[in-house]
From TrEMBL:
Pfam families per the UniProt record, alphabetical: ParA, Response_reg
Modified sites of kind 4-aspartylphosphate: 59
GO molecular function, one term: kinase activity
A single Gene Ontology CC term: cytoplasmic side of plasma membrane
SMART domains in alphabetical order: REC
GO biological process: negative regulation of cell division; phosphorelay signal transduction system
Species the sequence originates in: Chloroflexus aggregans
The entry's keywords: ATP-binding, Kinase, Nucleotide-binding, Phosphoprotein, Transferase
Identification of the protein by name: Histidine kinase
Superkingdom: Bacteria
Domain Response regulatory: 8-124
Length: 416
């Protein structure tokens, strides 16, 4: 968007009072303009063609045609429109349906003014940042999902769509393992700004946290980061989460994105402990990552959630090699075999990390990663193997991306 240009917004909701309330909330925002209001999905499709909004606030539950069907139809005729789904329901299935339809964000009613403004500006900025690539028929579309080749450091987001599978423990151990193997600069970010616990896992004092960076984001530079980040005995630099959820709420997706971009310039490897959510903070880390280490366990509800995430990842344009499936707490005592999971997901597991509940709990309680406390344990070796594979693969890709492309033989032939 050019400077001074307003974000064109359309509001779609079958309740008149809701439409009017949203319009009033946006009226005094100088960079946002409500260009149309629709009362149902069919009207929204027609108005989208007529008024060409950049962002649509779309209610999910409407008579005649609901927000999901309307979103699919609108994005078919204009893929560049950014849709924000609104719903009183916050269940995973609703979020999944919205993402499958092509929505970019999901807001739960009642919506605060700050969340509304932030989401509209966020999706508009995402649309403006998309590189233009040709598509069938000579049209153009924005390519999203794949991190762009860069000479900067590599970002690894450790993630699971279900909590309790060991994301924080693996992230902490992975960062230490990468540092031990490469002796390069490694940063670890507690992206779970609401309930982050890397300070406990690594026995670090949270004197300064990510909130100290977020509150001074306009002055973000290497000096600010170095002042705020804690130093682990392995020399891994750690950006810790706030000590309480209230302050964590002040950290936005834009903060996460700016911080990760700066860290990528300053560190060779950045490991992000990413919360189990499809909300904008998580997506900010997932979008920027070269690899999304997706942890899962051999439990049916976890497998189901991973399958849903893989569908969302496809919709977000993530290439298959960006999402790396890793089985954590691997055991043959659950009644489910890894081979059955691969067949169900139609994806191969990249690695398996063994199950050691006693040793992992002891390591957590002592604040010492298992790769340090018990380096000869099989789980520690599995994590070291994960670190090795990540480093080797991403380093090869970085070299390939930065290498000049060879000229074709025909380019050297004289014109006839």
């Amino acid at each position: 968007m050019s400077e001074g240009e307003k974000i064109r917004v359309m509001i779609v909701d079958d309740i008149v009072d809701t439409r009017d309330q949203l319009e009033k909330l946006l009226f005094f925002e100088k960079d946002i303009e409500v260009v149309a209001k629709a009362s149902n999905g069919r009207e929204a499709i027609a108005f989208a063609r007529q008024y060409r909004p950049q962002v649509i606030l779309m209610d999910i539950n409407m008579p005649d045609m609901d927000g999901i069907a309307a979103t699919e139809a609108i994005l078919t005729q204009d893929p560049g429109i950014q849709v924000i789904i609104m719903s009183v329901q916050g269940e995973t299935d609703y979020i999944r349906r919205a993402m499958l339809a092509g929505a970019r964000e999901f807001l739960i009613k009642p919506i605060s003014a700050d969340d509304l403004y932030r989401s509209i500006r966020h999706v508009a900025r995402l649309a403006a940042m998309r590189p233009v690539v040709p598509v069938a028929g000579g049209a153009v579309a924005g390519a999203v999902g794949a991190a762009q080749p860069s000479a900067d450091g590599q970002i690894f987001a450790v993630f699971s769509p279900k909590g309790g599978v060991g994301v924080s423990s693996i992230a902490a151990n992975l960062a230490v393992a990468i540092r031990q193997q490469t002796n390069k600069k490694v940063a670890l970010v507690d992206g779970n700004v609401i309930f982050g616990d890397l300070s406990v896992l690594l026995n670090l004092r949270a004197d300064k946290t990510i909130i100290d960076v977020a509150s001074r984001i306009e002055n973000l530079d290497r000096d600010l980061l170095n002042d705020v980040m804690a130093t682990h005995p392995t020399q891994v630099k750690v950006l810790l989460a706030p000590p309480d959820p209230q302050r964590g709420e002040l950290v936005t997706a834009d903060h996460i994105r700016a911080i990760l971009e700066m860290l990528r310039q300053e560190y060779d490897y950045v490991v992000v402990d990413t919360p189990a959510s499809f909300q904008d903070r998580s997506l900010a880390a997932l979008d920027l990552a070269q690899r999304v280490i997706t942890l899962m366990t051999l439990e049916m509800h976890c497998i189901r959630n991973v399958k849903l995430f893989l569908e969302v990842a496809d919709l977000l344009g993530y290439p298959n090699d960006k999402v790396m499936l890793v089985l954590n707490k691997a055991t043959n005592r659950t009644g489910i075999r890894a081979e059955e999971v691969e067949k169900h997901l139609q994806r191969k597991l990249a690695l398996q990390i063994g199950d050691a509940p006693h040793e992992m709990t002891l390591a957590i309680n002592q604040g010492t990663p298992i790769v340090m406390a018990k380096p000869n344990h099989q789980v520690a070796k599995d994590i070291m193997n994960l670190a090795r594979e990540l480093v080797v693969k991403t380093d090869k890709e970085a070299v390939a991306a930065s290498s000049p492309k060879p000229k074709l033989f025909g380019q050297w032939l004289p014109r006839r």
